[in-house]
Design goal:
297 residues, alpha+beta, 61% helix, three-stranded antiparallel sheet
């Protein structure tokens, strides 16, 4: 085998180049080598890795091609973009053609729906700028993982690795949290698959923050734990366990007043949005903070 071939398929090469990009070492040179040798990115590859196509779905929907945001001079191709969203919402596994036709052309007959799908796939490849960007095999459709990067997919993989202590869970978890900038495809409620994926990703976020926050608490790295729990509250203001994490951290750091402020925010949010009171666990933490505050006076 030639050196370029070995370099492309060796995971060590990918990790070395990813670390160089993360530390901003010879970025232009490293990026050029990655492109020329088609180095495969590792799971921890930073956003600066030169993927030809980037698709952002967490907190926004945006498509980037060769480093430039895709803009439309006229009306955006709504159906083609809807097809891309459905493929992304299906996760990293290929999505069946029948599922895509049912979601996007429910009122069309079988042959007509298939023709509409085939035409939209051609247009999607053209939109993404590569005939290799979309793969159709055995009546299933997927994006080409070697040239298409999707923030939701990367978040999911990083979160799973961190949750099950693969590699460096704190580093992987922190990287995953950086990617989660809001709910999956906000405002796209018409598709069942999009809604299901949104809920799954929010559940993964909750598990990740709980696991990562506990890791930091166990190490008494309370400021880092606070950052985790605050990120969780920003993503889901009704997740009571994140407020409890904030309260525990402030109690451990001897800052009862700030812990009580978190409790009051929790109580107000639950009352206004759900019409319920904080749980017994939160009330116990409130009592602990109140006792600590009395002792400080």
């Amino acid at each position: 085998f030639s050196y370029p071939h070995i370099s492309r398929y060796s995971p060590v090469t990918g990790y070395l180049f990813a670390e160089a990009l993360r530390e901003r070492v010879e970025v232009a040179y490293v990026t050029d080598v990655i492109r020329r040798l088609q180095i495969r990115p590792p799971i921890e590859a930073p956003e600066s890795w030169p993927w030809p196509i980037r698709i952002y779905t967490l907190g926004r929907f945006e498509v980037g091609r060769d480093g430039e945001k895709l803009e439309f001079s006229g009306r955006a191709p709504r159906k083609v973009l809807a097809l891309l969203k459905e493929i992304v919402a299906g996760g990293e596994e290929p999505v069946s053609a029948s599922q895509l036709m049912d979601a996007l052309w429910p009122d069309e007959e079988g042959d007509a729906a298939r023709k509409s799908l085939d035409v939209s796939l051609v247009r999607l490849r053209k939109l993404l700028g590569s005939t290799d960007s979309v793969v159709v095999r055995d009546e299933h459709v997927s994006l080409n993982h070697e040239i298409c990067w999707v923030d939701a997919w990367t978040f999911s993989r990083l979160g799973e690795h961190a949750e099950y202590n693969h590699g460096n869970p704190k580093r992987l978890g922190a990287r995953a949290l950086e990617l989660y900038r809001g709910v999956f495809l906000p405002g796209e409620d018409e598709s069942r698959q999009i809604v299901v994926t949104r809920l799954k990703l929010r559940d993964k976020l909750a598990r990740l923050i709980s696991a990562l926050g506990r890791l930091f608490e166990d190490e008494q790295a309370f400021e880092k734990a606070l950052d985790c729990y605050r990120h969780g509250i920003e993503a889901d203001e009704l997740a009571e366990e994140f407020y409890q994490g904030v309260m525990r951290c402030h109690a451990a750091m001897g800052r009862p007043a700030e812990g009580m402020a978190a409790y009051r925010r929790l109580r107000q949010t639950l009352s206004v949005v759900l019409g319920v009171k904080p749980s017994q666990s939160s009330e116990q933490l409130k009592q602990l903070l109140g006792n600590a505050g009395s002792q400080q006076q």
